[in-house]
Every structure is written in C-alpha cells, then in structure tokens.
Automatic annotation (TrEMBL):
One of its GO terms (molecular function) is acetate kinase activity. Pfam families: Acetate_kinase. This is Acetate kinase. Mg(2+) binds at N9, E380. Mg(2+). Can also accept Mn(2+). CDD domains: ASKHA_NBD_AcK_PK (cd24010). The gene is ackA. The active site is at D143. It catalyses: acetate + ATP = acetyl phosphate + ADP. Its EC number is 2.7.2.1. The record marks H175, R236 as: Transition state stabilizer. Its cofactor is Mg(2+); Mn(2+).
C-alpha cells in the first residue's frame, strides 16, 4: 500500500513527530521545544532554519507548524494513512495498541489519574491531530502495554490489596515500545525468533528502565506505578526508602515539594550538583570533578544491582542489551556496570565497547563471557509507526 504514517510523541513542553513511508522507512522528523514558553520553536531534522513559533505556543499550533513544514518539503501532499501516538499510561485496560474512538479516548482519560503529568498532554496531541486530519485513523501506542505479561508476583507491591483493587496501585512498567523493539532486534541479531529469546533490556536515556524479557514477554521491570521507581535517571531518584516520604513530611515538606525533589532535582543532577546530562558528566569526571564521578558510580552500581535482580526472572539469558542515549553511547557506563557483574560470568571486549559494539551485531562481550552483551540503537518511533499501520489498516504489512 502507498501513503505515509505520522508518529506523534507529546511531552509536557515538547512535541516530536516523524514521518514514515508505507515500507516503514523514515522520511523526516521534527521537534518542537519550549512549548508554552515565550521562546518556543520547532525544527525539521536536517534543515538549518528554525521555525519560530508564537510565544506560549500550544501543542496544536506546534503540530500545525511542523505539518506545514513537512508539506513545504513535499513530503505530506496527501494526509497520512495512519497516525500513531505515544501514550504513556494504558493502565490495565490496554494490553496492545488501540485504534482511537470515543471509548478509547475516555479510557485514556480514566488512566490519567495514574499519570497526571503525561496522559493529559498525550491527549492534547491526539486532539490536535484529530482537528488537523479528522478523517485519518489514529492509534494509541502505550508505554505500559508491553508489560501486560508481568506476573502477579512481579507487579504487586506488598501493601494492602485494597490499594490495588480500589485505586490500581501496582507496578505497570514503562518504555514498553523500546523494550519490545530490543526483544525483536536482539532475536534478529542472534538468529532466533522473539518467542524463544530471553534478554535483559536496559533502556538508559533521560529516563531509565530495565526489563527482563522471557521468551519474548516482559516478566519483570524496574519502573512501577509511575516512571519514578527503579534505576537512577537524569533528574529522577529511582528507588528510595519509602520512609523518606514521611521523613521529609516531618521536615515540613508537602507532597508537591517531595514530588519536585524526587522527579526534577534528583538522579544524576542531584548527585552531581551540575547536570543531568551523562555526556557532560563524563567530561566533568575526566576533569576530576568528584561529585560527577560519584553520580556515575551510583548510576552504574544501581544498574548492575538491577541486572542481577532481573536474573531471578529468567531461565536462560540470550543477551544483556544496552540502549537509549546513554546505553548506546557511553562506553564508560557499560564498562563500569559490567565490572560489577564478574561473578555472573560477564566479561567485556574493551575494543568493541569503545566502538559502541561491533557494527554487524552490536556485540561488546569478551570471547570468554558467559553471556552475550549487545548495544542496540532503540527506535521507538518505528514501533509506533508499525503498530499504527497494523491497527489502522488490518491486513496491511504491519
Ligand atoms: P530521552 O530519554 O530524552 O530520549 P536520550 O535517549 O536521547 O534521552 O538520552 C539522553 C542521554 O544520553 C543524556 O544523558 C546524554 O548525555 C546521553 N548521551 C548521549 N550521547 C552520549 C555520549 N556520547 N556519552 C555519554 N552519554 C551520552
């Protein structure tokens, strides 16, 4: 079939779009930043000129500007055949991507109480594209859906069950599109099928999570009810003692302040006191900035602990996979992390690691390693485009 597929990923102050052809080759991508601020702007990748947006630009106006820029490039002469939206929280309702109708919209709104910072802005993106392309099928692709296979022992918190029954308090997991992509890519590189492949997938970007994937299914993951649990992240703390909440409350902090500290002021930023950006931290560490070294050490040690923990869910391990901006690009993080895991039999090839993996199959493990270790670039947009095409046009390539 012919036609294009548009993917839309709305963050609180940003909007990313990508355009694919019917064979799922990426044609273009664009990004709008600082939405809601005076200096909002947008760019199409590979084009030098910035698209100035009006002060306080909304997601809808940014989307219009990006679509019109894609039209100017001659890439979007006809409306797309499908639009795929990243939606962060699908709760227990959505186990796979969903073709959007009124019922689906209501269900996404219902899930917003589980992700008050994310789902409303995802809905804003859906409304914006609906206004722009009223006749095009729109598909919601959920970060949580891939984790619907988590067993009860992995998703229940040890709190009174009524919190789960009444309010849905459980572990959901996020970054599902990336972990799903790792499962299929690792299987391809290993010459296996996803259904017989078991991996540990470490997605390390600004947000970080790790997932144990057994025979193609997510069976444990580090993020929980919200994307705050688990690994150390750019500005998020990951795991802390739950006792910290009433400790800080006794110091006079309210829920909003605790939320801000743990989500926006912690992680690599909080530990280093400098930046949430791993590349910048590695440079600072090179210049003997001690707090930056500490931040990297804590990040890698927590990651190694979680890799060990994920082993408990697997009966075989075909590969440990690193992905995301840090996982794909930081040889230092991979090296420091694997250094904690010698007892399991992981070894690393310095040369391959320095080159971010062998070009043909992403390999970085040493010849004597008990397990394969791969670096695989993630491609969440491609998963969203693929799911959108499959849901909007059943029977197509998919
Ligand atoms: P997001 O989660 O926002 O999509 P990315 O996956 O792009 O983020 O990851 C961003 C992180 O990747 C930042 O901390 C950035 O510093 C880090 N990163 C990118 N390139 C490198 C590099 N060469 N060395 C170390 N860290 C890097």
């Amino acid at each position: 079939m012919e036609g294009t597929i548009l993917t839309v990923n709305c963050g609180s102050s940003s909007l990313k779009v990508a355009l694919f052809d019917a064979q799922l080759q990426k044609l273009a991508s664009g990004l709008a930043e600082r939405l809601g601020k005076d200096d909002a702007f947008a760019t199409i990748k590979g084009r030098p000129d910035r698209i100035e947006l009006t002060a306080g630009a909304t997601h809808e106006s940014a989307l219009r500007a990006l679509v019109s820029a894609l039209q100017d490039c001659g890439l979007l002469d006809a409306p797309p055949v499908a639009i795929g939206h990243r939606v962060v929280h699908g709760g227990e309702t959505f186990r796979k991507a969903a073709l959007i109708d009124e019922d689906v919209l209501t269900a996404i709104e219902d899930c917003a109480n589980l992700a008050p910072l994310h789902n409303p802005v995802n809905l804003a993106g859906i409304r914006a594209t609906t206004n722009l392309f009223p006749d095009v099928p729109q598909v919601a692709v959920f970060d949580t859906a891939f984790h619907h296979t988590l067993p009860q022992k992995a998703y229940l918190y040890a709190v009174p069950q009524r919190l789960y029954r009444d309010w849905g308090v459980r572990r959901y997991g996020f970054h599902g599109t990336s972990h799903q992509f790792m499962a299929t890519e690792a299987a391809r590189l290993l010459g296996k099928t996803p259904a017989t492949t078991s991996i540990i997938s470490a997605h390390l970007g600004n947000g970080c999570s790790i997932t144990a994937i057994r025979d193609g299914n997510s069976v444990d993951t580090s993020m929980g009810l919200t994307p705050l649990e688990g690994l150390v992240m750019g500005t998020r703390s990951g795991d802390v003692d739950p006792g910290l909440f009433d400790f800080l409350a006794n110091k006079g902090m309210n829920a909003e302040e605790v939320h801000r500290i743990l989500n926006n002021e912690s992680g690599l930023l909080g530990l280093s006191g400098q930046t949430n950006d791993m590349r910048a931290l590695c440079e600072l560490a090179d210049h003997d900035h001690e707090p930056s070294r500490t931040a990297i050490d804590v990040f890698c040690f927590r990651l190694a602990r979680y890799i060990g923990a994920m082993m408990a869910s697997l009966n075989q391990l075909d590969a440990l996979v690193f992905t995301g901006g840090i996982g794909e690009n930081s040889s230092l993080v991979r090296k420091k992390t694997l250094a904690h895991l010698g007892l399991f039999g992981f070894t690393m090839d310095e040369e391959l690691n320095a080159h971010h993996g062998s070009i043909s199959d992403g390999q970085i493990e040493g010849a004597d390693s008990r397990f394969r270790v791969l670096v695989i670039p993630t491609n969440e947009e491609l998963v969203i485009a693929r799911e959108a095409l499959a849901s909007a046009t059943p029977g197509s390539a998919g």
